[in-house]
Predict the 3D structure of the following.
Amino acid sequence: MAPAEAGTWQRVGPLSGLPAVLRDAGVDAARIILASGLAADNLNDPEALIPYSAMGRLLDASVRLGNIPLIGLLVGQRARVEALGVVGCLMRNAPTLGDAIVDLVSNHQRYVRGGIPIFLNTSDPAMLAYTIYDEDVVAIDQIYDGTVAAGCAIFRELTGQSPIEVRIARRVPDDAGAYRRFFDAPVIFNSEQSALIYQRRQLAAPVRGADTGLREHLLRQVNDYWRIKQPDLVDSVIRLLACGATGTTPGLRDVARRLSMHPRTLDRRLRERGLLFRDLTARARFQLARQLLSETGMSITDIGLALGYADISVFSRAFLRWSGLPPSGWRARQPVSPHRAAARIAAE
């Protein structure tokens, strides 16, 4: 396995099906991979790591050069639990669907830096959401498509359970029916989050063929797996802020508690790095605001509400400070394909 690089990255495993999708479409897979800035053999080893931004370029090249507008969905729906390596083995031997989801979420940092899953299971229905926090990534809509499709395919493989609803933070695609056929559930586009929604009772569904004895061995193995450094302090804070960027963003005290630190200690250590907690909070909100403005047809008012701003004028002033433009002006400058233009105009 390649050593983890600084910054953000993605384990190859979930992308292993991409060359086959390209070949099935009559597209030269090597050409697409090279166009993304990767070597032709970079997808051969599922344990290898590639930059998170390279994953976005890979999907973008598949759309632009391969003319496969549903590449994210097509790759995601081919995902199998073995693509997740030893953590996949752990999930295969989990007692229930809920336990398998927890396995994935709690070990996710071993696989990915650049996006983060959030499991909200204290209410009914439960939600497994995914948020991208890498600021240098393209094809965000394709990444969200692939992530929710892969999650659905893997949990369906493990337990036979399908989500009762799917939400995707992207505009309505031309072939929305392809999504509904795969997920076999209502699909809500232009959502503030990309998520799989399950009824609480579904979380108790047993994993088929789970071996509890083997699971105990795997739990020990996972603790030693991928001897890489844990996320540093700043990355840990950014990940936690990304989890709560929609709704009420966690404050300094909340984040410090999650990191088992005193708030003053966290504040001091961030200042030693030349950072302020409030600036990282604004960065997380700005990142999500840009995603929702560029990738969805949500109204600016709804985006402000999703970010926790009850007053749209407060959100607009904040965005102006962040970008130098009001939200409407920033959105108008983003490139948009002709089939999305009508949705964007309607959203305004």
User: Anything to note?
Assistant: Residues 252 and 278 are 8 Å apart (CA to CA). The radius of gyration is 20 Å. The longest strand covers residues 126-132. Strands lie at 9-11, 49-51, 112-113, 115-120, 126-132, 165-167, 187-188, 194-198.
